[in-house]
Amino acid sequence: MIQFTDVVKSYEQGNVALNGVTMQIEDGEFCFLVGPSGSGKSTIIKLITGELKPTSGTVHVNGYSLERIRKREIPYLRRTVGVVFQDFRLIDKMTVYENVAFAMRVVGAKEKEIRERVPYVLELVGLEGKMGRHPREMSGGEQQRLAIARALVNNPSTIIADEPTGNLDPERSFEIMALLQEINNLGTTVLVVTHAQDLVELFHKRVIAIDDGLVVKDEGEEETNDEAE
Ligand code: ADP
Questions:
Q1: Which residue has the least CA distance to atom 22 on ligand 1?
Q2: Is 4 part of any domain?
Q3: Positive or negative, the Cα torsion across 128, 132, 137, 143?
Q4: For residue 154, is it within any domain?
């Protein structure tokens, strides 16, 4: 579960990025986070991953309290949250297989687990035939799938995708959103940060809209219980 309560985040220069954000995303939800450039979306992601601490208010993520988390606990928090970065952050000198295997090695997985798990996640994202390729030999959509596979491989309970369709044509964008939906159907909580209003409308999911550091809209199919009743 991701829970923000009255979260204010000001940067050192005095910029107030979040101005009292309260929201809750339950386990198993699929949710879009939308808002114009500069509205605070990246700040929300960084608060979820422990890269930043709130100035005031509380942030709870998968059992961790981020406002008071210790440095040595952050790697454990991060195993519960897979992030698909906007710029992918793939390693070009490694193959597709190795890029995903590497994410397991850094958390100390055994070779046997790696040999079983990597082909499974590559198949899930539709890259089973491309394990020996290098990222630069792949299309943007395939690189996005690889980034998703890597985010998934350590079996996080939550996936955050930052502008996953930013550089894709409409058809590939739809396929990537459908893949994220499939991952959600398998039980992973999915938060998609996006500008793609047309896609958001197609998927009929919960949408949290922020503007100027505030939640200005929170509505959709997967409403919290007290709103739905
Ligand atoms: P978004 O991801 O929606 O574009 P951000 O979370 O990046 O928005 O930014 C929200 C606000 O915080 C903006 O006004 C931005 O200029 C400011 N901001 C973001 N990062 C920093 C930083 N490292 N230092 C100072 N101000 C920042």
A1: 11
A2: yes
A3: positive
A4: no
Residue 213: CA count within 13 A, CB half-sphere? 13
Residue range 30-44, pLDDT digits in tens? 999 999 999 999 999
The reported pLDDT for the residue numbered 228 is: 47
Please work out whether the CB of residue 55 comes within 6 Å of at least one atom of ligand 1: no
Query: Does the beta carbon of 38 sit less than 6 angstroms from any atom of ligand 1?
Result: yes
Q: Is the CB of 14 under 6 A from ligand 1?
A: no
Confidence at residue 85, expressed as pLDDT on a 0 to 100 scale: 92
Asked if residue 41 has its Cβ within 6 Å of ligand 1, the reply is yes
The mean per-residue pLDDT over the stretch 10-35 comes to 95
| DSSP category for residue 163 | S
Residue 176 — very low, low, confident or very high, per pLDDT cuts 50/70/90? very high
Question: CB of 154 closer than 6 A to ligand 1?
Answer: no
* Domain region containing 214: 1-80+191-229
Element (H, E) at 89: none
91 alpha carbon – ligand 1 mean position (Å): 27
Q: For residue 221, name the pLDDT band (cuts at 50, 70, 90).
A: low
**What is the pLDDT, as a whole number, of residue 229?**
42
State how many domains the chain has: 1
Please tell me whether residue 145 adopts helix, strand or coil conformation.
helix
The 8-class DSSP code of residue 181 comes to H
Task: Tell me if 145 is assigned to some domain.
Answer: no
